[in-house]
Amino acid sequence: MRCKLTIEYDGTDLLGWQRQPDGPSAQQYLEDILDKLNGEHKEIVSAGRTDAGVHALAQVVHIDLNRPMALWKIREAFNGNLLAQDAPVSVLSVEEVDDSFSARFSAKKRGYIYRILNRRAPAPLLKNRVWWVPYPLDIEKMEQGAAYLIGHHDFSSFRASACQAKSPIKTLDKIEIARQGEEIIFTLEARSFLHHQVRNIVGTLKLVGEGRIPPQKIKDILQAKDRKAAGPTAPAGGLYLNKVEY
After folding, report:
1. Is residue 141 included in any domain, yes or no?
2. For residues 138 and 143, what is the distance between their CA atoms, to the nearest angstrom?
3. CB atoms within 10 A of CB 224
4. How many domains does the chain have?
5. Torsions phi, psi of 24, nearest 5?
6. Is 87 exposed, middle or buried, given 0-12, 13-18 or 19+ CB atoms closer than 10 A?
């Protein structure tokens, strides 16, 4: 029985999605529970690997069960065990899927949001949830800069050195920037992303928003195909995987 699970997690104290030898991960929490249900180890496949500190509002994974179970029992079995461990992970929904379904390879689009808290006062209640920027950012200029990134490009300038993708060429379908109260929300969508691509884009557009570089400089940075040409990597805590489409 193969099932598609939609999960959320607080990445603050996790070493990311992927199981690690030296600390907790979302994958480890879920696989340990699946091992109990199956009586043997089976890997859980996700739509994407989030980094340490990155959150998920709607990560998608698939699991294989050795025996049929009611969908609500699967969800309750996972959440009951997660609660007992005080794990920062929750299973939102469970759907039965065909054996050909892959959380990773069947995905058609992935979406992320990035939250900047743009106010003078610090935000103790939002620690590890947003990037606090205490000086004004010009959204219109950031939007002008972001426009150069839409479409099919070589994103080497926004790619982490540790990225394992075979090619730096990606198609960015959407990038929107909007103010919601005291927050500035970046929304990005693509079939797939490079390692740190979203955080590097946000970190670079922040330089535009504070007036340190002009919007048109983004075009030059993109064409440079050199990570050193772009801005800093935005902190992990402001990033959320919020959508996977199939």
Report:
1. yes
2. 9
3. 14
4. 2
5. -75, 150
6. buried
Q: Tens digit of pLDDT per residue, the chain (246 long)?
A: 999 999 999 999 999 999 999 999 999 999 999 999 999 999 999 999 999 999 999 999 999 999 999 999 999 999 999 999 999 999 999 999 999 999 999 999 999 999 999 999 999 999 999 999 999 999 999 999 999 999 999 999 999 988 889 999 999 999 999 999 999 999 999 999 999 999 999 999 999 999 999 999 999 999 999 999 999 999 999 999 999 999
CA dist 77 and 74 (Å) reads 5
CATH code of the domain containing 124: 3.30.70.660
- Active-site option among 10, 22, 51, 173: 51
Q: Which two three-digit tokens encode residue 59?
A: 């990560």
What's the token pair of residue 23? 């600390």
- How many other β-carbons are positioned within 10 Å of the β-carbon of residue 33? 24
Q: Choose the final residue of a domain: 97, 118, 152.
A: 97
Amino acid letter, residue 152? H
Assess whether 51 carries a catalytic annotation.
Answer: yes
Residues 72 and 113 in one domain: no
Q: Is the pTM of this model over 0.70?
A: yes
Residue the block writes with tokens 């069960």: 65
Give the residues across from 219 on adjacent strands.
none
